[in-house]
TrEMBL record:
<dbReference type="Pfam" id="PF01475">
    <property type="entry name" value="FUR"/>
</dbReference>
<keyword id="KW-0862">Zinc</keyword>
<dbReference type="InterPro" id="IPR036390">
    <property type="entry name" value="WH_DNA-bd_sf"/>
</dbReference>
<dbReference type="InterPro" id="IPR043135">
    <property type="entry name" value="Fur_C"/>
</dbReference>
<keyword id="KW-0804">Transcription</keyword>
<protein>
    <submittedName>
        <fullName>Transcriptional repressor</fullName>
    </submittedName>
</protein>
<keyword id="KW-0805">Transcription regulation</keyword>
<dbReference type="InterPro" id="IPR036388">
    <property type="entry name" value="WH-like_DNA-bd_sf"/>
</dbReference>
<comment type="similarity">
    <text>Belongs to the Fur family.</text>
</comment>
<keyword id="KW-0238">DNA-binding</keyword>
<keyword id="KW-0678">Repressor</keyword>
<dbReference type="InterPro" id="IPR002481">
    <property type="entry name" value="FUR"/>
</dbReference>
Length: 164
């Protein structure tokens, strides 16, 4: 009876140790992934008025000394986009995807102006938005989804630089 109890006791200890190791690995991996996610968000906050591609973000993280790969950056950007923390913009003429930090839910209620030359993003947060929204709805029966709407053109500085 005593020998069986010792084996059972050793077996339970082994199972407990294995489970503890499993939890430690799982928790460490979660923290590891969260670290990249937080670094991406912080970088995007600092650059909220510019378009950023995954490679720009990747390069910035590497320059910060993080050991990250491009696939991890893409995966985190997709998750952050799905969560609504960042916005994903696609420029059809370039066939490229750019990302922008979504400033607190405000970005869902206005259009964005994107300079195709320098990448600067402006938020169209003025009374004109209400006029556009009302006109499109009443005259065309069309409701704008501002979350994914971007008007592409040239900012004042780039227009002046081109015409100088």
């Amino acid at each position: 009876m005593q020998i069986i109890c010792i084996f059972v006791d050793i077996g339970i200890r082994i199972i407990i140790i294995q489970y503890a190791n499993h939890l430690h690995r799982r928790y460490s991996m979660k923290q590891y992934r969260t670290k990249y996610k937080e670094c991406i968000i912080e970088y995007m906050k600092k650059n909220e008025d510019h378009r950023l591609c995954a490679k720009d973000i990747y390069q910035a993280l590497v320059e910060q000394g993080l050991n990250v790969n491009l696939v991890t950056v893409y995966r985190n950007l997709d998750k952050l986009s799905q969560q609504g923390l960042i916005q994903k913009h696609t420029l059809s003429e370039e066939d490229s995807v750019y990302y922008q930090y979504a400033r607190e839910e405000k970005c869902n209620h206005h259009l964005h102006l994107l300079c195709k030359r320098c990448g600067k993003i402006a938020h169209l947060e003025c009374d004109f938005m209400d006029i556009i929204r009302t006109h499109l709805l009443e005259d065309h029966g069309f409701e704008i989804d501002c979350k994914d709407s971007t008007i592409v053109g040239l900012c004042k500085e780039c227009r002046e630089a081109i015409h100088a």
